[in-house]
Amino acid sequence: MPIPAYARWMLEQEARALLTRVARVKPFALQESMLPAAGLLPSSQTAIEKFLMAGRKHLRALVRRFLRWLHSPAAFWSDAEEAQRRFTILRLRFNAVVTHFDMFDNVITQRSENETGVWLSGLDVVSADALELKNGYYESPAVICYLQRGVGAAIRRGRTRMPGGGRNPVAIVQVPRERMVGSGISSSLVHEVGHQAAALLDLVESLNPVLDAMRRRNSHEEEAWRLWKRWISEIVADFWSVAKVGIASTLGLMGVVSLPRAFMFRLNPNDPHPAPWIRVKLSAALGQALYPQAAWGRLARLWEAYYPLRACPRSSRGCLPCLNELFRNWSRHC
């Protein structure tokens, strides 16, 4: 039977409410108050506004298409169940796209906080500098930073698919508030930027065949090479951080992963992060290979004094020393 008039009217009002919601999404330049020094970099502001403008246009088109269908001859041969199904799908797609607006709003609103906004603007500049490579290897996406509770930094990489469709116009780096003091801020920030750089250069994909070949040549160290391959995305990001900010990266990492001894040697084959103990040793080995000096050895020995390998649990005793020796040999030959 045709869609009842009351059902058509109800769904039409719901759809028009969605249009009202879209109309309330204004450009950030018209609604966010912040110091000029706390503002986004022009490239970031432009990329976000273009993305949101396209999103608003897309949402309005979806809603108007539904309204046209609701009053079309095709709807006459449908029923209330079909109309409700179409509207429900429309609203799910609508909410997925509106989530993008809210995400950027939460990130940019922090720029209005006293002192925090200027800090974040400075982190944007540092991130852009850490992502830059000479000789045009890639075109860097804009980077914006924001603070979040918790202990882990994270990145939503630029040009990746967003929920509900579309590509993220900028890279968004989440920095824990507690990292804003001490060396952990540069280590965490540039590590996350390293994930973006690795994706732009396809570093992990290019390294996997190399690791497979090395594992076959060193079958007596099978488990160590298997773990290396599992950890390679985080190792590459740590490498980027050491390459860009030097010893501050390892110092910051030591602060971030300083945990009770029970967690320090734990090997989880499903975790892409290396065990904290070996991760710091690897960071120091990378630093020694890139910028040879005695400070890296002192840091590694200090870390061993904090967490002696003799405290390693039996389940990890076979692999961690093997990894330690493997990294030591690797750094010596670099």
Keywords:
334 residues; 2 domains; three-stranded mixed sheet; 5% strand; elongated
Descriptive account of the structure:
- With 334 residues, this protein is mainly alpha-helical.
- It folds into 2 domains: 5-110; 202-333, no CATH class.
- It is 65% helix and 5% strand.
- The N and C termini lie far apart (77 Å).
- The mean pLDDT is 85.
Please outline the helices and strands.
Elements: H1 5-23, H2 42-70, H3 73-76, H4 80-109, H5 116-131, E1 142-148, E2 154-156, E3 170-176, H6 184-201, H7 203-217, H8 222-245, H9 247-256, H10 261-264, H11 276-290, H12 294-306, H13 314-317, H14 319-333
Parallel strand pairs: 1-3
Antiparallel strand pairs: 2-3
Helix pairs in contact: 1-2, 1-4, 2-4, 5-6, 6-8, 6-9, 7-8, 8-9, 8-11, 9-11, 9-12, 11-12, 11-14
Question: Could you write a compact summary of the structure shown?
Answer:
With about 325 residues, the protein is mainly alpha-helical.
Beta-strand residue fraction = 5-15%
- Uncertain segments are none
Proportion of helical residues: 55-70%
The sequence of SSEs as H and E is HHHHHEEEHHHHHHHHH
Q: Whole-Å distance between the termini?
A: 77 Å
The geometry reads as elongated
Overall pLDDT level: 85
Lateral strand order in the biggest sheet: 1-3-2
Q: Multimeric state of these chains?
A: single chain
Structural class: mainly alpha
Radius of gyration from the alpha-carbon trace, in angstroms: 26 Å
Largest sheet: 3 strands, mixed
